[in-house]
# Entry
Amino acid sequence: MRIVSWNCNGGFRRKYQKLLQYKADLYVIQECENPADFNDAGYKKFAANSLWVSENKNKGLGIFASSQATVLEKNLWDTYMLYYFISCRVNKSFDLLAVWACKPYIATIYEYLSRNHDKMNENCIVIGDFNSNKMWDDEHGFACHTVVEKRFNKLGLYSCDTLKDKTLVDEKTPTFY
# Structure
């Protein structure tokens, strides 16, 4: 299964076609519009099998399945009033947690993980925009990138950047650009 994640920086209804070349089964998109609130026929068709969350119709988090054959079932993991988390079961085979960390960034993920750690294991994919890097650990105290990474690791979850040796790479270049 191919999964693509992208912070589209808004205007996704005008950009989604650029992703089609990747032929992904799932697209996890941060800062995208609510498909239900726009009359763009192409965007609505692309989003026919999707989950979306936000309090702002213009900027939210979405999971878009490329076909109706991909079954997305909401897990209904409690968000405890934290925004920009979507948990779902994909094809009755694994859990997917989509994330878009907004202010207070990594602290939001720390809080969500603290409340839902019992639901996650090595059969879960956590994907999205964490807006985080261990170089900012001092700014976030106990709810920092390194602590969150270690807590995920205890659950058997590792960054795709770490598949070789399971240690997080020191990113020197922002990946947003």
Remarks:
- The CA atoms of residues 13 and 40 lie 7 Å apart.
